[in-house]
Amino acid sequence: MSPVWFVIIAGVSALIAAPVTRAAGRFAGPLLALVPAFLFVSLLMQLPDLPVGTAILQSIEWVPAYGVSLGFRLDGFSLLFSLLITGIGTLVVIYAGSYFSDDAKDRGRFLGFILLFMTAMLGTVLADDLIMLFIFWEMTSLVSFFLIGFKHEDAKARKAALQSLVVTAGGGLALLGGIIILGLTAGTFSLTEITAQAPQIATSPAFPAIIVLVLIGCFTKSAQFPFHFWLPNAMAAPTPASAYLHSATMVKLGVYLLARFDTGFGEYLIFYAPLMIFGGITMLISAYAVMRSTGFKAVLAWSTVCSLATLVLLVGVPGEAGVKAMIGFLVAHALYKAALFFAAGQVIHSTHQYELARLGGLRFKLPITAIASLLAAISMAGVPFFLGYKAKDLFLTAAFDGGSWGMWLTVVALASSAVMTAVAGLAALKPFFLKPPYGEVKLYHNEYYGMALPPLALGLLGLAIGVMPAPAWNSVLIPAMSALYGSTIALEVHAAPSLGLKFLITLALLASGAALVWFWNRLYRDPDNVKANVVFADLGYGAVMGWLDRAGQVTARLLQMLSLRTYIAVTLGVSTLALLLALTGFSADMISAAAAEPVRPYMAVVLVLTLIGAAVAAFARSVLISILGVGIVGYTMAVVFLLNGAPDVAFTQFTVETLSIVILLAVLLRLSLKPAPQQSLLKRPLALAVSAGFGIAVGLGVLAMSVLPFDRRLSDFFGEASYLEAQGHNVVNVILVDFRALDTLGEIAVVAFATLCVWALLRRRVKKEG
Amino acid sequence: MTGPALLADLSLIIPELILAVGAMGLLLAGVFIKGEETAARLVSLAAMALLILAAGVAVFLAPQGGGTAFFGAFVLDSFSLYAKAVVYLAAAIALVLAGHYLRTERLARFEFPVLILLATLGMSVMVSAGDLIALYLGLELQSLALYILAAFNRDSLRASEAGLKYFVLGALSSGLLLYGASLVYGFAGSTEFGAIALAAENPSVGLVFGLVFVVSGLAFKISAAPFHMWTPDVYEGAPTPVAAFFATAPKLAAMVLLIRVLMEPFGAMADQWQQITIILAILSMGIGALGALLQTNIKRLMAYSSIGNMGYALVGLSAASEAAVWAVLLYMTLYVIGVAGAFGVILSMRRAEGMVERIEDLAGLSKSRPGLALAFTGLLLSIGGMPFLVGFFGKLFVFYAAVQAGLVWLAVIGGLFSAISIAYYLMILKRVWFDEPTGGEFINPPASVAIITRVTGIATVGLLLLVPFMLTRVIEAGSAIGG
């Protein structure tokens, strides 16, 4: 099966999820789970076709003009991710079918979203083309928005949904910017080709920008400092969604893309240093926050942030050790954390109790869940013979071999491991095996098998891989490492722990974890707790959103002026500025033009008249007088034409001016005009400034233009042609009745129509009076 | 002009002839049909038929390779044909959306479809303009019809105010444009775009001055900031179907005209006008994004959204390349589809007591009308340019063109503002999906409106499959201009 089919099958299942659920009722979960299960098995069957170091590439031409193709790529690493997506997806669908057993409508909606999400995830990890990858990437963000806000009666859920989308989609935008610049630099959007020409790209001046933008995109998605706050808030989602999106798969996309880039760019300081620094900071912050959390899911969420940070850090660790540890930890974490979330969901669902501190003694009431979470927790704590042990072993190896970064790596690795162990202990021991602090916990319903078996399956799988490591490691994990590393990685995996310093450290970590569990009650009750929560929560996000809100208010106040006068002032004001801008550089022309202009006294008289007309129009108290003022300006313009050798234009102007004044007055006299509350122009400095400015700008423009040589082509043509072709001596007449005869006809028609209208107006007025 | 030459010219303007003769004929017919509502209904149907007929002629019967008519005043190329087809269909959609609304609001008059036809005729001339006279002729025909449409609900104070504002500002901007055009004519010695292009190779101060005026006038028509101020008032005040029309066909036609004017006659002056379009783009994106944030009225919000979207289109245009031309064309097409659908949704916001248009009235829509909610989600996010919806490709190519032209910083600003704009679309969607319903449920929208919302809603996803096809069309269209 070629890669694109996985995406298509998943997409179709999402579309039919709602009707199928309606028809299948309570069995919808297991029934729909057949789809991801089928995909899981099909993926496993690809294994023989995919020897280490090979990839199945599939490319469908899509937008050839822009080199965007539907490029898919299945190699060891994407296969590993796809297996996690479909495998855990199968369990999530079964689990969700049971979780929403009370509400058929919710169930259909939820399963549809989950399968849609699975489609997007498969698309992201199977895409070779970066634009495609980005599209699916953003699709996961949007589906996540709907899943977080699924319990929409909860205000916190709504807020968290918006927050997660703003953060991840905003980061996605940065990623898109990075991808576009990368595509322009490399000349291709294909990840395979980009990786191949990584050294050339790294020499481009755009390289730092690309890396920074991609890092922002990945950090938001994988909840790394300073974007880490959205993930704990996203726990408002129904637990199956938390298990799937916010722990096992979606949040790992950032890690996925970073790992992909690491193949090509892993050796460049600008790429790996931020991973180590920000990954480390996130680890420390989340390790601190987890010890201060009280909610069951909050504890798991912060520990997930910590694990993601570990993965980011390990991507940054150069060389083989980092890749090995990253893949090992990735798989181990996906298995045990999903199981723990599943268990938490069962507990919360049956007790309606979200606070870890209030839980206890549930081992006989929820026996399967208790066993499952115990198995998962042991793996998480890193006890030998479990997958988690091997992952921690590789992690410590990578940290100790960290070269110049060794000290930093060791510190964060030890701190986070200890805390992980503690979280494992808390999540597994507290609800099930410790005594409930406030009396027996009330149970609303018994264990649902649909919600108990999925975590058990994951827990057992962790144990199975730990005891019998060869099949899983050799056929899936090591090929994934090799695909990332670029050459075959040799790794011998044994079930039994190798004794030595690292083993001792592991034991020490277990002990310190146990100690943390012991003191946990006192830690989270610390009065500083509230302060810590605020500091590590969404202070920055709130500030940014608040700023945006204020910017919106200010803009609204500035823009909703609603008065026509202001609108006109702005329009003219902006045009004035643009004109003045266009005139810069022509000041010499203006000066020489002004100097060349001969002084003509009669023009001065006309101009004075114009000014008087303008002043009357501006300062008159009555509209009628204003119109007369405008009329004076119009007549003086006609005189200017007359004096400058354009008598025909002048006479047209006279006619038009007269007509328009008559019409205007006729209309106005018919209206019962209330005297408008006129304000003197002097009291409106803005209006004065705008009109003066506009006039000055246009005047300066005309001045600058008057320097230009007069284009004689038209006048010469008409001068000659009037006599030779039309046999007329008066050029103006010939133009009007011959060359432009149709125009003249049109003008006459317009004047005639206008006259008709005037006549109609005046006639009715006369009638009324008569 | 000789007979055969005239016939050859007329054969190029068959769609325009259909609209012009049709509009006159319908105006007469409307007077003689008994009953105001019957007349409105029949004339409206006939107008739709004419628009679709004209679109069909433009798409299927256009002469191979196009041509010019009336001494170059009218240009028929793949660019104008593409724009015409979209404009005609968008106008037809506006008529479909309008019918039921006008009847229930007691506004059904046969002049409405006739005015739409005349405005469309004006746009058709605009997109085919090959000289300044044709440009102005088309623009004014369009504008005059639009002035009346904006104030069509003349008994409403708000509508009259909006219409008056639009008219005064529109007249002002037309005046600016005309002044600029006469300057250009004076200093280029011709109104024809080809001759202006020659003169623009050595631009004089007169041409620069004229260019500034012309661009200011056109910026008003596409409602680019700071010439945008009429938009929210008109969208809010005018009857909703009129706003739907304003937001679609005229925007596309004016943008197409702007592209042609800037790329053809003033192509050599790109250095000068790029500065203007960049400023317009940034202001429009900013005002569109920030101004929309606190709106409570969905129509005002759409107005700000359209201002912002013109900004994104201008980002592409600022690249001044062939890729920019087709990217903007694609962007505008996808925008028109999205906005037509979104207005379909707004027209579906009718309760038993009448139309509502506050954003909070949409609360809980996903429960009462899941189909409508889903369509709205797709439409809004597509307009916002969310990936995996078709609108994303419009934004992607527009920004890509800008980046290719070295305007990386402009694309970055555009990206930031589009993130903000996605935020306000999401706030609407949060109401639609997560909030509890307030007030009564919406009554069933008429089938015509429902079909438009469904079809456009599906198109926001379904067109993804057709993006390659659309790209070949717009690239072909763009090659007529940028090449």
From TrEMBL, chain A:
TM annotation in the entry: 27-45, 78-98, 110-127, 133-150, 162-189, 201-220, 271-291, 298-319, 325-345, 366-387, 407-428, 448-466, 503-520, 569-596, 602-620, 627-644, 650-673, 685-708, 744-762
Superkingdom classification of source: Bacteria
Residue ranges of domain MrpA C-terminal/MbhD in the record: 608-671
UniProt membrane topology term: Multi-pass membrane protein
Domain MrpA C-terminal/MbhE: 684-764
Localization (cell): Cell membrane; Membrane
InterPro entries membership: CPA3_Na-H_Antiporter_A, MrpA_C/MbhD, MrpA_C/MbhE, ND/Mrp_TM, Proton_antipo_N
Domain NADH:quinone oxidoreductase/Mrp antiporter transmembrane positions: 127-412
Annotated NADH-Ubiquinone oxidoreductase (complex I) chain 5 N-terminal domain residues: 66-110
Alphabetized UniProt keyword annotations: Antiport, Cell membrane, Ion transport, Membrane, Transmembrane, Transmembrane helix, Transport
Protein name listed in UniProt: Na(+)/H(+) antiporter subunit A
Higher taxonomy: Bacteria, Pseudomonadati, Pseudomonadota, Alphaproteobacteria, Maricaulales
UniProtKB/TrEMBL annotation, chain B:
EC numbers: 7.1.1.-
Pfam families: Proton_antipo_M (PF00361)
Domain (NADH:quinone oxidoreductase/Mrp antiporter transmembrane): residue spans on this chain: 129-420
UniProt keywords, alphabetically: Cell membrane, Membrane, NAD, Quinone, Translocase, Transmembrane, Transmembrane helix, Transport, Ubiquinone
Domain of life: Bacteria
TM spans (from-to): 12-33, 40-61, 81-98, 110-127, 133-152, 164-187, 207-230, 242-263, 275-294, 301-320, 326-349, 370-393, 399-426, 447-471
Subcellular location: Cell membrane; Endomembrane system; Membrane
Membrane topology value: Multi-pass membrane protein
Catalytic activity: a quinone + NADH + 5 H(+)(in) = a quinol + NAD(+) + 4 H(+)(out)
Presence of the UniProt keyword Cell membrane in the record: yes
Assembly information from the UniProt record: NDH-1 is composed of 14 different subunits. Subunits NuoA, H, J, K, L, M, N constitute the membrane sector of the complex.
PANTHER family named among the record's database cross-references: NADH DEHYDROGENASE
HAMAP family per record: NDH1_NuoN_1 (MF_00445)
Family: Belongs to the complex I subunit 2 family.
Purpose: NDH-1 shuttles electrons from NADH, via FMN and iron-sulfur (Fe-S) centers, to quinones in the respiratory chain. The immediate electron acceptor for the enzyme in this species is believed to be ubiquinone. Couples the redox reaction to proton translocation (for every two electrons transferred, four hydrogen ions are translocated across the cytoplasmic membrane), and thus conserves the redox energy in a proton gradient.
Protein name: NADH-quinone oxidoreductase subunit N
Organism ancestry: Bacteria, Pseudomonadati, Pseudomonadota, Alphaproteobacteria, Maricaulales
Gene behind the chain: nuoN
